[in-house]
Structures are given as C-alpha cells and as structure tokens.
C-alpha cells in the first residue's frame, strides 16, 4: 500500500511542478527548448537516422509486450493481485510522464509563436471569410496551372523521400523569419501501424522518446507533403498541433514546385472551410461552389477515404488524445489542430501570403 501511495504522491508532485513551469515560458524557451532539447535531439538522431524502420515503433511493441507479461506474472502469483497491478500501473504512469516531459513534452510550455510574431490569436468572422476567399482563388489558380483543366484533380506520386527533402528546403527558407533551429533530425518514416492509424483517424505522429516522426503511409497522397512537414515541426520542438499545422503549411507553401504549393493551400483551405461550416452552413456551400471541380474531387477523395476506413476506435482514441493535449497545455484538446486557422488569419494580416 505504501508503494501505491508513494507513486500517487510522486505523480501529484510532478503535476504541480509542471503547473508551476507553465508560468515560466521564457525560461522553458531559453534553457529547455533552445538548449537542452536540442542536445537530446542531436544525440537521438545520431542513433535513429540510419534506418528507415522506426525504432520507436519497435520499442512501442516491446514495451506493450513487457507490460502485458508483467501483469500476467502478477495474476499468476494470486497474491495481492489488485494491489500489485495497481502499483505497477501507477509506476508506469509516473515513468511515462517523467520521461515524456524530459525528452520532449516541456516544449508544450514554451513561448507561443503568436507572441514571438506579435500577432493576435482571435479573429472576426469576416476575416475568416476573407482568408477563405483568398485561398479559394489561389488554390483554383494552382489547380488549373497544374492540370490545364479545372475539372481534373491533382495527383501526386507517393514519394516520401521527395516529401522529406521538400520539407527540409522549406524550413531553411523560414529560418530568417522564425525562431526555428535547423537541427539535425531523421527523415519522417513509414509507420508500422498505418492500418491502425487509418481506422483511428490519424495521419502521423512523433515518438517523444526517440524523436522519430512517422506518417500513416495509407493516407491520400495529396495530404502527405504537409503531414510530413507537420511532423518535422514536432521534431524541431514545435509542440502544439496548431503551430505544427502552421509551420507545415508555410514550409510547403514556400516551395518553388507548384504541386507542393497546391497541397499546402488545399490543406489550409480545408481547415478554413471547416471553420466556415461550423459558423454558417450557407456560406460554406457558397464557398464550396466556387471551387474548381478538380479541387472538389481532391477533397471528396480524402473525405471518402477517412469515412470508409473509420472504425469504433476513432472517437475513443481522439477523446483520449484530446484529453492528453489538454493536460499538456493545449486547452482546446483535439480542436487545437483547428487553431491553425487563428494563426494563419492573423499572420496573413501582418505578413500577406503570396
């Protein structure tokens, strides 16, 4: 019983300490994100960049097997089963929180990009409509320039190596305007759990313990370039989902290849249309009708893919992940992804998009 109480106390103390650290974003930025984290990133990348297989994915499997094996051992002993399992679970939770925060999680507490750029975080509905209109015009123009036919959808070759290279080039172009360290990081890798991710509704993820970024290799190819750039943002210590979306968009929109520009603008447009639809269904339909038919086909293909492959785990895991985000200073939970629109609107007011 003392062991259980001890771990409960340790978890509580750790959470209180993290609550205190939330008040010190500039300290986190200076000493953790800009120094300690970069050192960890460099060391881990040295060990994981040499293989296309995700070491982190393999470790996840081994850890799950070890946990199950340990629990089975406690059950077989038939003595104080509940107490032993409870103590082991609390120990595992404590270790997860501790190492997650040390290796990556404290980036959630760093100075927000909106503060660094001195831009607002809210917007008027009219500003959302203006940006949506702007993105429609840009995306229509790019689609037609690529296909020479407004009814033809844009197709991408599935080339993860090319998407990684484009992302790296994009971040180099962002270095002057943003405080993004051009640190060494491994390429985004194919996830070993792509089928599972598809059913759960996820496109990719970062392993916070190995700093490897993984992509669901089964998703529609049109979404892969920005997803790769999004996950690389996480490798760079950009923790919030809204900011990772923001930098993923900018990295791809800065490319010379108009295919990548199209992928980036389509990505941003879909988020804007989603926000418009939440606020005004009629306005959403008006905007959607302005899209070239080829763009509508790209959007339709993506939505069809997710709907057809969605399973019961999607809502469960997204609720779990949403609560996890809230515990890590992303108060909007799963809606944090959509806060990308807030950033983009206010960034566009200060630094007009091309």
Please characterize this protein's 3D structure:
The protein is mainly alpha-helical. The protein has 2 domains: 2-109, no CATH class; 113-350, no CATH class. It contains 15 helices and 3 strands. It has helices spanning 2-21, 25-48, 55-77, 81-103, 113-117, 125-147, 160-174, 194-200, 224-235, 241-253, 258-279, 281-290, 293-309, 313-327, 340-350, and strands spanning 189-190, 204-206, 213-215. It has a 3-stranded mixed β-sheet, with helices on one face. The chain is globular, with a radius of gyration of 22 Å. The mean pLDDT is 92. The chain crosses the membrane at residues 58-75, 87-106. InterPro entries: DUF3810. This is DUF3810 domain-containing protein. It holds the Pfam family DUF3810. Keywords: Membrane, Transmembrane, Transmembrane helix.
Task: Provide a brief overview of the structure.
With 354 residues, the chain is an all-alpha fold.
What's the overall geometry?
globular
Largest sheet: 3 strands, mixed
Relative helix content = 55-70%
Please indicate the count of domains. Answer: 2
Order of helices and strands: HHHHHHHEHEEHHHHHHH
Quaternary organization? single chain
Distance between the termini: 62 Å
Total beta strand runs: 3
- Total of helices: 15
Cα gyration radius (Å):
22 Å
Mean pLDDT comes to 92
Structural class, please? mainly alpha
Task: Pick out the low-confidence regions.
Answer: none
Strands ordered across the widest β-sheet: 1-3-2
Strand content: under 5%
């Amino acid at each position: 019983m003392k062991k259980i109480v001890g771990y409960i106390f340790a978890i509580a103390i750790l959470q209180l300490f993290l609550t205190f650290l939330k008040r010190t974003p500039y300290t986190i930025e200076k000493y953790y994100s800009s120094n300690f984290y970069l050192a960890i990133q460099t060391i881990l990348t040295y060990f994981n960049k040499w293989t296309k297989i995700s070491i982190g994915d393999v470790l996840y499997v081994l850890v799950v097997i070890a946990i199950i094996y340990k629990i089975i051992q406690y059950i077989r002993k038939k003595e104080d089963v509940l107490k032993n399992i409870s103590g082991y679970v609390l120990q595992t939770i404590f270790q997860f929180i501790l190492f997650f925060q040390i290796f990556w999680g404290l980036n959630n507490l760093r100075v927000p990009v909106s503060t660094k750029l001195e831009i607002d975080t809210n917007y008027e509905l009219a500003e959302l409509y203006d940006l949506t209109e702007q993105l429609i015009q840009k995306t229509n123009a790019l689609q037609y320039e690529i296909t020479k036919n407004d009814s033809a959808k844009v197709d991408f070759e599935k080339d993860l190596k090319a998407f990684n290279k484009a992302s790296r080039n994009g971040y180099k172009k962002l270095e002057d305007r943003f405080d993004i360290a051009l640190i060494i990081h491994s390429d985004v890798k194919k996830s070993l759990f792509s089928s599972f991710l598809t059913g759960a509704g996820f496109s990719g993820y970062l392993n916070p313990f190995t700093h490897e970024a993984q992509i669901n290799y089964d998703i529609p190819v049109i979404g892969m370039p920005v997803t790769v750039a999004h996950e690389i943002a996480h490798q760079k210590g950009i923790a919030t989902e809204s900011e990772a979306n923001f930098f993923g968009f900018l990295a791809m929109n800065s490319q010379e290849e108009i295919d990548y520009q199209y992928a980036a603008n389509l990505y941003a447009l879909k988020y804007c249309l989603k926000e418009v639809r939440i606020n005004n269904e009629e306005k959403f339909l008006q905007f959607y009708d302005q899209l070239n038919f080829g763009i509508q086909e790209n959007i339709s293909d993506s939505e069809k893919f997710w709907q057809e492959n969605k399973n019961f785990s999607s809502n469960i895991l997204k609720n779990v992940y949403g609560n996890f985000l809230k515990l890590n200073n992303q108060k909007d939970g799963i809606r944090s992804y959509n806060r990308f629109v807030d950033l983009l609107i206010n960034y566009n007011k200060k630094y007009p998009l091309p």
